[in-house]
Amino acid sequence: MTLRDLRWRLGGSALTAASCLVALALDMGVATVPLFLLALLGLPLMIHGKRLAQLFRAERGGHCHTADVVHAARLRRQRRR
């Protein structure tokens, strides 16, 4: 895992943790719904890191084999080195 990828994953963790803590501090008010959506946005960042944009492009393009697309891109990057 590269440092850049780790930063993306830590950013997702921080986004999820901060939005959950603020939602708890607001004591389950109406404003917790947008905070819940922010927490959900942070989850894919924690899992996929910097490859999140690539996954969204693959899904939007209608690829039924998203994992294959990501794996092929990773192999292409490794061959360049």
UniProtKB/TrEMBL annotation:
It comes from the Bacteria. PROSITE patterns: PROKAR_LIPOPROTEIN. This is Uncharacterized protein.
